[in-house]
Amino acid sequence: MKHTDIKELFVKTADFVNKEVTVCGWVRTWRDSKSVSFIELNDGTCLSNLQLVIEKGAFKESVLKSALVVGAALQVVGTLISSERNVCELTVKNINVLGGCPQDYPLQKKHHTLEFLRTIPHLRPRTRYFEAVLAVRSRLAFAIHKYFQEHGYKYVHTPIITGSDCEGAGEMFRVTTQPWDAKVKDEAAYYADDFFGAKAGLTVSGQLEGEVAAMGLGKIYTFGPTFRAEHSNTTRHAAEFWQIEPEVCFCDLHDIIEIAEDFIKSIIKDVVENCPAELAFFNERIEKGLSEKLNHVLESDFAKITYTEAVKVLKASGKDFKYPVEWGSDLQTEHERYLTEEYFKKPVFVTDYPADIKAFYMKQNSDGKTVAATDLLVPGIGEIIGCSEREADLDKLKAAMLKRNMPLESYTEYLDTRKYGSVPHSGFGLGFERIIMYITGVQNIRDTLLYPRTVGSL
């Protein structure tokens, strides 16, 4: 049905004033007086509601009764008028109720807790909060593609179903067509009868296949769903999330750090410029000072510190950390937040981590203890990017895999990239939902996804 988006009425008000327009949307709120009723209508195209002004005497009581209901879907014809308070309003001539809404509609109140909204994920996109989150998510995805496309990267689609565990942590979801009570003599027989004739799982990362593509295309990026059967019931972990993973040939760790910083600043700048209403909403409702934080990131040079130096800083901080800091142990969120929020007061790259706490594919440094890896830590979140130069030496890569008891035969194709014309190359992984959290101030990853998948919750 032909209609005008509410966003267009606010953006090009002068073009529509004193003209008849048709709008569609859902009733967010309404109020009544003796002779006039007011409806706040929203169609999802912008955060602002369009106020409808209804002269009660011009409509049948039955029409008003079905239209003056929170959640009802309406098609409305009227004349747009300027409004000093609301920018514009619609004086209604005709109302068509497209979808009625009963009184048990859960979103009757203006404000609901996020915990309550998680119980109704199918309805929460109708709230202003999630309208803003999903608008930023959409724009951010566009900004990510825009950055890579403008910088000469090719977008590749890596498999979602795979036989290799990129991180080597064994936290993959198994994919199978076998019945739950399959009668087999051993594991080999079980997989022999399965769809692929081998053990398969949902990907935890597209990196390994991304490296394969980069070896022919030079610069690539992936952007797709990844899955981890990780029992981390925290505000930062989900079992299904989206990840951005560029891979760049002829690129060392210092080069990829420069790329990562430029990338982060570019996509934040894009959202700041194109989602001002949404960020103003988050600044007011979710994180006071959000605008200043984002502008500070855009204006700052990110700090750099080695893991060894970071451990020294943490030990000398005098802080009573829940998890003691020792060289060789992974940094916890409390450590990361101290470095970013109190010590540097800006994003920081921590480089050269101990080899034993990082993945097998990372380039081994000459000290024999650390690898050419870095994590980008940001205030309020901690790690959002994991980055490294990849090990290009075939023998060193094999040795790292054997040390972790990884079956080399399962990675033959990956090893061939080092056997045939190996080159220095680097890449990083950015959790899409984590950067959404950072840009919006949203504190729980469950509130950045349409349908969050977490431990015990489907």
How far the N terminus sits from the C terminus, by CA atoms, comes to 35 Å
Runs with pLDDT <50, length 5+? Answer: none
C-alpha Rg (nearest Å): 27 Å
Shape: elongated
State the major sheet: 8 strands, mixed
Counting helices, strands and paired strands, the structural category is: alpha+beta
Structure annotation, total helices: 15
- Beta-strand fraction estimate: 15-25%
Helix percentage range: 25-40%
Number of E-type strands: 16
Strand order of the largest sheet: 6-10-11-16-15-14-13-12
Mean pLDDT: 94
Explain what the structure shows:
33% of the residues lie in helices and 23% in strands. It has helices spanning 6-11, 13-16, 61-67, 114-117, 128-150, 187-192, 207-217, 253-274, 276-285, 290-299, 307-315, 333-343, 394-403, 412-419, 432-440; strands at 20-32, 36-42, 50-55, 73-83, 87-99, 154-155, 161-162, 174-175, 200-202, 219-227, 240-249, 303-306, 348-351, 373-378, 382-389, 425-431. It is elongated, with a radius of gyration of 27 Å. The strands form 3 sheets. An 8-stranded mixed sheet has the order 6-10-11-16-15-14-13-12. With 458 residues, it is of the alpha+beta class. The protein has 15 helices and 16 strands.
